[in-house]
Specification:
456 residues; alpha/beta; Aspartate Aminotransferase, domain 1
Length: 456
C-alpha cells in the first residue's frame, strides 16, 4: 500500500504528527506520491501506523493549510503539490549542518557584520531620534524620494569637509545602503550601456545588483598600484573603491587617479566610486575622494555602517550634473527606502558635530585594535602566516599554506566559537580576512590564540 513507507518512531523526541507531516512531504519530494494520488483515510492510517486518529487528523490539517494536500468532501484526501517545486529533503540527510544550524555559543567574531557596541554613541543618537519623534508635523507624512532636504544639506557640508567632494543638495540621493542606491543609478544610466568593469570579489553584493539588472561584468586586472585599464576594458561604466582594494590597503595614487579619469573622458564613461570606509583610514590622513577631481564623471557613494550604526540603513549618492535631469524626471516613480525619522535624526547628529567627533574617536580606536591584532597573530602563529593590513575594510588578512580546505578551516573555527570573515583561495594559499570592527580590544589576543588552537 502507498503508506507502507511512513515510518513513525514513537521513541523520538519529535511529536508524532510532525513526523507524519514530514514523511508525507518527503514522499512527495521523492516522487513516491504524485499530484492527484489519494491518501489513506484517517481511520486507515491510524490503524496501520498504530497512532491515534487525532494525530493523523492534525498532520493532514497542517498539510492542507500549507497546500500540500486537499480535502475533497466525501471523497478523501489527495496530493495537491507538484513534486518539482518541493526541495528534496533526502539529499540533505547525513550531511553536516550548516553554520547557522550549529548551536555553539560564539565567543569571538572576526566577521565584518558589526561594530563594538562599546563605541556606539548611542546616548546622543537616542536624543536625536527622540527629538525627531516630537515633530509630528514632519514624521506624519511620506519622505522625499530623493531624501530629506535637511539631511542632504548636512551631507553637503560633511562630504566636502571630510571627503573633499564637489556637491550640492540637489545632486545627493539618499537610500538604504549601497545596494539600494545602485538600483536607482542603474535605472538612470542606460546611455552608458549594460556592461560594468569591476574588480572581481571586491563587492559581491554590488555584483548581484548588476546581475539583477541584466548587466554583464568585465573583471578588472590589478597589480600593487591598483586596477589596470587596458584595451580589454570595453565597458563605459567603471566600479571602484579609490581608498583601497581587496588586494591591498593602499589608496590609488594620484597618477593612477589621473589615469582613470583620462580613461573615463576618452571613452565617455562614468566611474562609480564606492567610498567604503574611506574616511576611516587611521594609519595616515584619508585620501580625498576621486569625485573631487572629476565631479562630472564620478558617481560617489558613501555610507555610515562602521561609523554610526550598521542597523541605521542610510547611504548617500552624489550624481553628476549629466544624470541629475534624468533622475529628476524619474524620481517621482521611486519610493524612499530609508526611514524618514532616521534621516532627520542623522541630520541633527551631523549638524551638532557629533559625526565628526565619532569619526575622530573611531580612527584612534581602530588603529589601536589593528595593532593589537597584528601583534597577537605574530605571537600565536609565528612564521606560519604572512600578514597584510586592509585598512578601509577594518581587517587584517592572513595568508596560510594548508592542505585543509577553506570549509574545513571555517568549520574548525566555528566549532571553537569563532566566526571568520571573508575567505578565499588562490595558488594554493588560503586568505582569511579577520575584521576587528566588532570584536573588543580586550578579546583580540585570546581570539587569536583560540584560532591558532582550532587550526592545529
Amino acid at each position: 500500500m502507498i503508506y507502507d513507507f511512513f515510518e513513525i518512531d514513537k521513541s523520538a523526541d519529535t511529536l508524532l504528527y510532525e513526523q507524519l507531516y514530514e514523511k508525507i512531504i518527503q514522499a512527495i519530494s521523492a516522487k513516491q506520491l504524485s499530484k492527484g494520488d489519494k491518501l489513506p483515510s484517517i481511520r486507515q492510517l491510524s490503524e496501520n501506523l498504530h497512532i491515534s486518529r487525532t494525530t493523523v487528523q492534525t498532520a493532514y490539517d497542517q498539510l492542507c493549510a500549507e497546500g500540500y494536500i486537499n480535502n475533497a468532501p466525501k471523497k478523501g484526501y489527495f496530493i495537491e503539490a507538484n513534486t518539482e517545486i518541493i526541495p528534496s529533503k533526502k539529499k540533505s540527510e547525513g550531511l553536516q549542518p550548516s553554520d547557522t544550524e550549529i548551536n555553539i555559543p560564539i565567543k569571538y567574531d572576526f566577521s565584518s557584520s558589526g561594530i563594538d557596541p562599546k563605541y556606539i554613541d548611542i546616548k546622543y543618537w537616542r536624543r536625536c531620534v527622540s527629538e525627531i519623534l516630537t515633530r509630528q508635523y514632519e514624521i506624519s507624512s511620506y519622505g522625499d524620494p530623493q531624501g530629506e532636504h535637511a539631511l542632504r544639506e548636512a551631507l553637503c557640508s560633511y562630504s566636502k569637509n571630510i571627503r573633499g567632494t564637489i556637491v550640492s543638495a540637489d545632486r545627493i540621493i539618499i537610500g538604504a545602503g549601497t545596494q539600494a542606491l545602485l538600483s536607482i543609478l542603474l535605472g538612470i544610466c542606460g546611455e552608458y550601456g549594460k556592461n560594468v568593469a569591476i574588480e572581481k570579489g571586491f563587492f559581491p553584493q554590488g555584483e548581484q545588483i548588476f546581475k539583477d539588472h541584466g548587466f554583464e561584468m568585465t573583471p578588472l586586472k590589478a597589480d600593487k598600484n591598483g586596477i589596470i585599464l587596458d584595451n580589454t576594458v570595453k565597458s563605459r561604466i567603471l566600479f571602484i573603491n579609490s581608498s583601497g582594494s581587496i588586494r591591498g590597503s593602499a589608496p590609488l595614487s594620484i597618477n593612477k587617479r589621473s589615469e582613470i579619469i583620462s580613461w573615463a573622458k576618452k571613452h565617455d564613461a562614468i566611474i562609480i566610486e564606492d567610498d567604503y570606509n574611506g574616511e576611516l583610514r587611521y594609519t595616515s590622513k584619508p585620501v580625498p575622494a576621486l569625485q573631487g577631481l572629476c565631479s562630472e564623471r564620478v558617481v560617489y557613494i558613501g555610507s555610515f555602517s562602521k561609523l554610526l550604526l550598521p542597523s541605521v540603513r542610510i547611504g548617500y549618492m552624489i550624481i553628476p550634473d549629466t544624470l541629475t535631469n534624468t533622475y529628476s524626471a524619474y524620481s517621482k516613480y521611486y519610493n524612499q527606502t530609508s526611514s524618514k525619522i532616521e534621516q532627520l535624526a542623522l541630520a541633527e547628529y551631523i549638524n551638532a558635530g557629533r559625526l565628526d567627533k565619532q569619526l575622530r574617536k573611531l580612527r584612534k580606536i581602530y588603529a589601536e585594535k589593528c595593532d593589537i591584532l597584528v601583534k597577537s597573530i605574530k605571537a600565536h602563529f609565528g612564521n606560519c602566516v604572512s600578514i597584510d593590513i586592509i585598512e578601509t575594510a577594518l581587517c587584517v588578512r592572513i595568508k596560510l599554506r594548508s592542505e585543509n580546505s577553506l570549509d574545513m578551516h571555517k568549520e574548525q573555527a566555528l566549532k571553537n566559537g569563532i566566526i571568520l570573515g571573508k575567505c578565499r583561495e588562490k595558488n594554493g594559499l588560503k586568505y582569511f580576512y579577520l575584521s576587528f570592527s566588532g570584536i573588543s580590544a580586550e578579546n583580540i589576543d585570546s581570539a587569536a590564540a583560540a584560532l591558532k588552537k582550532a587550526w592545529e
